[in-house]
Write a structure and sequence with these properties.
The complex is a heterodimer of chains A (about 240) and B (about 325). Chain A is mainly α and about 240 residues long. Chain A has one domain (about 1-245). Chain A has 14 helices and no strands. Chain A has helices at about 1-15, 20-40, 50-55, 55-70, 70-80, 80-85, 90-110, 115-125, 130-155, 160-180, 185-190, 190-200, 205-210, 215-240. In chain A, helix 2 (about 20-40) crosses helix 7, helix 4 (about 55-70) packs parallel to helix 9 and helix 5 (about 70-80) packs parallel to helix 9. By secondary structure, chain B is α/β, with parallel strands linked by helices. Chain B is built from 11 helices and 14 strands. In chain B, the strands form 3 sheets. A 6-stranded mixed sheet of chain B has the order 6-7-8-3-9-10, with helices on both faces. A 4-stranded antiparallel sheet of chain B has the order 2-1-4-5, with helices on one face. In chain B, strands 12-13-11-14 form a 4-stranded antiparallel sheet, covered by helices on one side. The radius of gyration of chain B is 24 Å and the shape is elongated. The chains are: A mainly alpha (about 240), B alpha/beta (about 325). The interface of A and B includes residues 10, 13, 79 and 90 of A.
């Protein structure tokens, strides 16, 4: 626990010691703004809610989270600091969790900085703030799942570009499965249980449910257990690499 | 003396390549073990297995009685390790870096402060505490790595090429630090600088192609040299021919070679090699006295480590297993 906390603090400070944090936050806010106001037509639609903001989050994270997660382990392997870290009295699990929670905390800082939108929508109208809170929590859960995938893939390579591209493709799978089952031709072609299963894997579908204001326990369990599985695999990979 | 490190037939294969092949040796408290070998001999791999960074393909080791396979966290608590190249997180300052290491080592509050202060003082980091590690010179980076390794005053200190790339003053400092800490610890350091072994080590282990080929004191290593107890004699040039013949006639001398003397000095130098490494300096000086040679210099050699090293690791004459 103490080790996890020490690694968490070191990592989180590390983001702000370099321009990475500021570049990431600025780009995140910029893209979120563009999606909300241009693509989502926040003003024109004349409804006081944050749906135009949240509905693009699966796509926003798809590109930004791999950029954040690619360095988690690949950089340590490249610079050799992984040898330092893993010869300290730290278990792979503690190291994985410390790094993951730091990246997640950093993402939540970026997400929290979108609060002016919330204020704006409350100023302009009378939105359902319960739905907005649920959407923020759902967005954060989804970001955690993306990060866990990215962290695990980053541990497999010392090349950050490879980590980025592979993470993006894997995450894309989790987003587009929802779109696939929306296509009639595919729905007719695949048996019903398969389409159901694919739809249930989709980040996009899950998040849409949450955005309606229903923070279902099944959705929470889905994102948390998915992140847990990838992080477990992450720790296993670190262990396996020792014997190669 | 208590045995703190036991290496029991460690082997490591990387795919088809055998990097370390059944190495075994013990190290006792108070010993400074110089781990020698050509590049790629398996020194770093052995150290990485001992510090639990790599899992051996077969065999195991114990550190302070803890097995590296089944009790790896306990082993890592006992060890201070400086990996090759002294990696450190470049965006951190040495102060923040050592603070992190101290937290991981389980220190809090006042004890943490005093541990960090002591490590900083021992390696001389005071001047650069607030600069990111990335901006430091190689020497300071190495010192940051050393400070990290000695912070918890470990019983076993493993240093992978601690003086590589340092200037002579820095090398001197690091060696002084190693000697100072040697009394109550096991220190294992790898190097390919042979003077370092003479300077700080109480024991030398040589590996080549993953196999252990020598284990003994640095003196024993020197004794394997053809130059061990050889006598270097400089005399007036006009007496050279006679002296060469006389030297060759001495019973204990195997052969005599003419070597370079300083030009225009009017002198010649010989190197007389003894039979079986016996001491011959007495016999040579007696011959000089009897022959009335004008001696410019005479000295007995201790042995040339680089010759022995080359012979042992290239597997030419004298490469028998000890």
């Amino acid at each position: 626990m103490n080790n996890t906390l020490a690694i968490f603090r070191r990592e989180l400070k590390g983001y702000f010691a370099t321009p990475v944090a500021y570049v990431f936050i600025v780009i995140f806010l910029l893209l979120a703004g563009i999606f909300t106001f241009y693509t989502g037509r926040f003003y024109e639609r004349g409804i006081a809610d944050l749906e135009p903001f949240f509905m693009f989050h699966p796509w926003l994270y798809l590109f930004l989270i791999p950029a954040l997660s690619m360095r988690l382990w690949a950089e340590e392997r490249k610079t050799g600091t992984i040898e330092l870290l893993m010869t300290l009295p730290v278990t792979p699990g503690q190291a994985v969790l410390g790094k993951f929670f730091a990246a997640w905390a950093f993402t939540s800082i970026a997400l929290a900085l979108t609060f002016p939108l919330w204020i704006t929508v409350n100023y302009l109208g009378d939105p359902d703030n319960g739905v907005i809170v649920a959407s923020y929590l759902g967005s954060l859960l989804m970001a955690g799942a993306y990060l866990a995938i990215g962290s695990c893939i980053s541990a497999m390579t010392k090349n950050q570009v490879i980590a980025f591209v592979v993470t993006l493709v894997v995450c894309l799978m989790f987003v587009v499965t929802g779109l696939f089952v929306g296509v009639a031709a595919i729905r007719d072609f695949l048996p019903e249980p398969v389409t159901q299963f694919l739809a249930s894997l989709s980040f996009d579908n899950r998040f849409r449910d949450i955005m309606r204001g229903v923070l279902d326990i099944r959705d929470i369990v889905y994102f948390v257990s998915l992140a847990g599985c990838w992080l477990f695999a992450n720790a296993l990979i670190l262990d396996i690499e020792k014997s190669q | 003396m208590a045995t703190l490190v036991e290496i029991k037939s460690l082997s490591k294969k990387f795919g088809p390549i055998t990097a370390v092949d059944g190495i075994r040796f013990d190290v006792a408290r108070g010993e400074v073990l110089g781990f020698l070998g050509p590049n790629g001999a398996g020194k770093s791999t052995t150290m990485k297995m001992l510090t639990c960074f790599l899992t051996p393909t077969s065999g195991t080791a114990t550190v302070c009685g803890h097995d590296i396979l089944s009790e790896s966290v306990k082993v890592r608590r006992k060890i201070g390790y400086l990996p090759e190249g002294a990696p450190a997180w470049g965006d951190m300052t040495p102060a923040a870096f050592l603070d992190f290491i101290a937290q991981i080592r389980g220190y809090r509050g006042a004890e943490k402060k005093s541990r960090i202060a002591r490590a900083i003082e021992r390696v001389g980091l005071e001047r650069v505490l607030r600069q990111p590690v990335d901006t430091l010179s190689k020497g300071f980076k190495r010192r940051v790595g050393l400070a990290q390794a000695i912070l918890h005053d470990p019983e076993v200190l493993v240093l992978d090429e601690p003086t590589d790339g340092l200037d002579p003053n820095q090398k001197h400092d690091v060696r002084a630090l190693i000697r100072e800490m040697a009394k109550d610890k096991v220190i294992i350091l790898s190097t390919h600088i042979l003077e370092e072994v003479e300077a700080v080590c109480s024991r030398a282990v040589i590996i080549a192609r993953g196999k252990l080929i020598f284990d003994g004191t640095p003196e024993k290593l020197e004794a394997k040299s053809r130059h061990h107890n050889a006598v270097h004699l400089t005399i007036a040039a006009d007496q050279g021919a006679g002296a060469e013949k006389a030297l060759a006639g001495i019973a204990g001398i195997e052969s005599v070679e003419r070597v370079e003397a300083a030009p225009d000095s009017g002198q010649v130098s010989f190197l007389a090699f003894p039979k079986n490494g016996a001491s011959i300096i007495g016999a040579v000086s007696e011959a000089a006295r009897n022959g009335g040679w004008k001696v410019g210099g005479i000295r007995s050699e201790t042995g040339r480590l680089d010759d022995v090293f080359r012979e042992l690791t290239l597997g030419t004459a004298g490469g028998e297993r000890k």
